[in-house]
Amino acid sequence: MDELSNYLKEHAQGRLVSWQHQGEAARRYRITVAQAERTILEMGLLPARYQRNVGSLTAEGQLVLHRSRVAVIGCGGLGGYIVELLARVGIGTIVAVDPDVFEEHNLNRQLLSSIETLGMPKAAAAAQRVAAINPAVTVVPVQEAFATANAGDLIAGSSVAVDALDNVQDRLDLSDACNSHGVPLVHGAIAGWYGQVATQLPEQATLRHIYRSWGSGSGVERELGNPSFTPTAVASFQVAEVCKLLLGSGRLLAGRKLVIDLLHMDVDQFTIPV
């Protein structure tokens, strides 16, 4: 380990270690790229890819993100952007859960979809995408539908779970599972020009309150559709909430619901009983 540390110190430019030298350190000392990244951060250095995070995130905060595990339930419209943003900010482990494969109607809005990925499992595409942009991030692809029976396994060991589901019943089941396992949940939903975001801390009934009037059937997304820009916006709010939860910074959306209206460019918030 001393040799690894000396190598990294020798090749750092100021506090920054380039991707070239991070990768070479992994090869030379027979460790993973993720292990090399952790060593860099533990030394108080910074992988050069994160230099534009400085000012918003400290080196210590970057290490917290690297050590974190986040479960993303759904890898479609919202989930694809969420996985991408989590990987780029430096979350160490992402559990990407989705049972589906890409179809042509996904191409208008789902970041991970392309002509080449039609027919490909969405969870596998998430892993492939992250490997191409940040190999220091470990993606655990799970090609399974979220259900009460497997909920514990899917969110076990995660610091935060992110709701990128597309139906109300599954959202409520995820909410209950997160409470049962003491995992904070960042909720997001989209429909047409509109979206909402909220954070449920353990033992809160946030989603039960949000959907208290729901009886059965699909949500309004089926009626209003989803253009490309709505999931992008809502996913960004969700990932910001994830980072705040992990870093213990800022004011969370716990006890509040943010409603985003992109048609009229309004953002409103509503208090939710906790």
TrEMBL record:
* GO molecular-function terms, A-Z: tRNA threonylcarbamoyladenosine dehydratase; ubiquitin-like modifier activating enzyme activity
Instruction: Show where the THIF-type NAD/FAD binding fold domain sits.
Output: 50-272
User: What Pfam families does the record tag this protein with?
Assistant: ThiF (PF00899)
Q: Organism source for this protein?
A: Geomonas paludis
Tell me which domain of life the UniProt entry assigns to the organism this sequence originates from. Bacteria
A Gene Ontology BP annotation from the UniProt entry: cyclic threonylcarbamoyladenosine biosynthetic process
What CDD domains does the database record attribute to this sequence?
Answer: ThiF_MoeB_HesA_family
Can you say what this protein is called? Answer: HesA/MoeB/ThiF family protein
What lineage does UniProt assign to this protein's organism?
Bacteria, Pseudomonadati, Thermodesulfobacteriota, Desulfuromonadia, Geobacterales
Name of the coding gene: chlN_1
Q: Which PANTHER family match?
A: TRNA THREONYLCARBAMOYLADENOSINE DEHYDRATASE (PTHR43267)
